[in-house]
Amino acid sequence: MTQRTIRFGVIGCGLMGKEFASAAARWCHLTDVNFIPVITAVCDANPDAIGWFKQAVPSVEKTFTDYRDLLADPDIDAVYCAVPHNLHAQLYVDIIRSGKHLLGEKPFGIDREANADIQKAIAENPEVLVRCSSEFPFFPGALQIAKWVEEGRFGKIIEVEAGFWHSSDLDPQKPINWKRRIATNGEYGCMGDLGMHVLHLPMRFGWKPANVRSLLSQIIEERPDGKGGTAPCETWDNAILACEVQTKDQAFPMLLSTKRIAPGHANTWFIRIQGTAFSAEFTTKNPKQLAWLPYEAGGKQAWHVMDVPYKSAYGTITGGIFEFGFSDSILQMWAAFCDEIANGTGRMLQPFHCATPEEAEFSHRLFTAALESNRTGGTIPL
């Protein structure tokens, strides 16, 4: 099979930039795909961050400390950008205007105004493919739930719950970083940092909140500043958003939660859907396990639980008996982005695409309303 080579530049050589490089190095893990990413250039304002790429990624030919120099390179087709939220508007807009396809990190702007600037650039450059990073819905269990929703299995929806929780911030001695500062992370706090993961599937199902009542928590108020003192934590640690969803034929409550301090959880993503005819739930805490409950009037109510086969959106060399993990979900997400570049949105090898700018834009509407709800104590319409 002839494969189209997509030449990538990486802007932001931190943790997630390295994860993309690792996914590109594992491309042989995929079967029957007609595209392959090759990272040819990287950029970071900190020259020390570039060192790992020069050592670990042989395809890297060029390194930059100014992202404008990377965008001026005609030998780059697409960019992955992973930088703090306050830099999204300027960098994403410049990337889009350069004509290079973009996979950017959430939340696509530090606030709603910044997101509007990005949306304007997208509208002015329709030939550029722009998508938002969100890998967890590519787990096989999540894809199976998406298929059940598409098939209309659930009957009348009773309620939905989705969340993304981790616990590393439970340690009060963890040094402060950019995610705890409004200037770099934004007022959304944990919502902007984690929320697109939570909203990805509900948005894809057409379940947009009509209103929101929020409960936002700031649990640890200061942290070590790395200089022998302490610094105030300015952003929200945890958020619980109680929403009402109104579709063309039904209404139901939906509870969304993003938590940096959830004792015992290390990056746990989950979704639970309860319906009158069918219920299902999946969590990455048990990544090989899927639970569902079919129901007929007068029948028994019994949960079924089984190990999910390793059956992903794109075929792999891995046997079905093995366990799917985080690095696999990133590889699948990247395959979806490259598929859409190579084959076009309507001709992808499989139909589940990455999170869209429109889905990211709605997340800003929701998070802005959640901030207002927290200030006023009321339920805010969207």
Automatic annotation (TrEMBL):
The keyword Oxidoreductase applies. GO terms for molecular function: nucleotide binding; oxidoreductase activity. The keyword Oxidoreductase applies. Keywords: Oxidoreductase. Residues 6-128 form the Gfo/Idh/MocA-like oxidoreductase N-terminal domain. Gene3D superfamilies: Dihydrodipicolinate Reductase, domain 2, NAD(P)-binding Rossmann-like Domain. Pfam families: GFO_IDH_MocA, GFO_IDH_MocA_C3. Residues 144-245 form the GFO/IDH/MocA-like oxidoreductase domain. PANTHER family: BCDNA.GH03377. This is Gfo/Idh/MocA family oxidoreductase.
